[in-house]
Design a protein that fits this description.
The chain is mostly helical. A two-stranded antiparallel ribbon has the order 1-2. α7 crosses α8. The longest helix is centred in the first third of the chain and has 18 residues.
Length: 162
């Protein structure tokens, strides 16, 4: 590495560390703007992470990013932060979450998955190219965001149970 590149690399690492304290999403989203690469900013264990068939990390961050890529292709609005905020409120990030106690469950259609979608809503707003399983994280996120787009304008506009 050249002597001129060392200060830039050190600065990029400091910025990534600072952003990581405020939230992983902010750090990852900022990488292209500060000139860092995912390889230079990723922890050593990231290379051993399990990937989805589409090449995304098989975790909440990867599921959101894969869903956002699909949403961009289909013209469905939404942001990482809007999805993450709603996932954490609805399921705490558990893709197998199920609500067996609310009115939907009493009526025989419990809310399921990361964004707690009932089967009729999942079926109506399913996005082609994703799994037909409402517990599939990417399919659940994408269908819920499609529903939120049609109902509220975007998942970003959802700030409570929907």
């Amino acid at each position: 590495m050249s002597a001129a590149a060392q200060p830039r690399r050190a600065r990029a690492k400091r910025i990534v560390r600072t952003l990581a304290v405020t939230g992983t999403g902010a750090a990852v989203l900022a990488l292209p703007f500060i000139g860092a690469t995912s390889a230079s900013a990723a922890p050593a264990t990231a290379s051993a992470a399990v990937k989805t068939p589409a090449g995304y990390a098989n975790n909440l961050d990867g599921w959101i990013r894969e869903s956002l890529a699909i949403m961009a292709q289909k013209g469905i609005p939404g942001t990482y932060n809007g999805i993450h905020r709603n996932v954490m409120r609805e399921s705490s990030g558990n893709p197998l979450a199920i609500n067996n106690w609310d009115i939907n469950a009493v009526n025989g259609t419990p809310s399921k998955g990361l964004l707690q979608v009932i089967d009729p809503t999942f079926t109506a707003y399913h996005v082609a190219g994703t799994s037909l399983d409402p517990y599939d994280p990417v399919a659940n996120i994408t269908a819920a965001c499609n529903y939120a787009w049609h109902r509220y304008g975007s998942i970003d506009n959802v700030n409570g149970p929907y």
